[in-house]
Design goal:
The protein has 154 residues and is mostly helical. The protein is built from six helices and four strands, in the order ββααααββαα. The strands form two sheets. It has a two-stranded antiparallel ribbon. It has a two-stranded antiparallel ribbon with strand order 3-4. It is elongated.
Length: 154
């Protein structure tokens, strides 16, 4: 294994700098690399080319980004997520209705434990109530009392 010297000269700016200012592999200092990337991104043709490549990649891999995010955040592979959906009959765990768009992973914010798969409305609803069962019960009681008043006055 090669031992790197304590200082190196950058091949771009020519300045001798401490080894910590260089990437693990390469002879161009981090500042020059950052400057190059900044200049590269400001050229309109480069941005358009990268946007086209990104669109092409997304079209070829439509679920890869969200699958990776779901795995990173919740520890769910695509297969386990689809299995959970299938186990619920591809219906929301709260309202038993079909998913309105992408099924949402419901999880306990305190522990991170996945509770089930919900439709977007139900997931947002319990989120607005701060995942607080007492507050949800109070809201249900409020609606029930209003409905009873309406029925008795009719």
């Amino acid at each position: 294994m090669k031992v790197r010297p304590p200082r190196m000269s950058c091949t771009t700016c020519g300045i001798e700098k401490p080894i910590e200012q260089f990437p693990k592999r390469g002879r161009t200092c981090k500042a020059c690399v950052a400057e190059y990337h900044l200049r590269w991104r400001t050229v309109p043709a480069n941005g358009e080319r990268m946007a086209a490549k990104n669109r092409e990649y997304q079209a070829a891999n439509p679920t890869r980004h969200v699958d990776a995010w779901r795995h990173r955040v919740y520890g769910l592979t695509r297969e386990s997520f689809l299995g959970m959906c299938a186990a619920q009959g591809d219906l929301c765990a709260i309202c038993a209705g079909p998913f309105d768009g992408t099924p949402q992973v419901d999880h306990d914010h305190a522990t991170g434990e996945v509770r089930g798969i919900l439709c977007g409305r139900c997931n947002r609803g319990i989120g607005y109530f701060g995942d607080t069962p007492d507050l949800l019960r109070t809201a249900a009681d409020y609606i029930d009392s209003h409905n009873r008043k309406r029925l008795h006055s009719a």
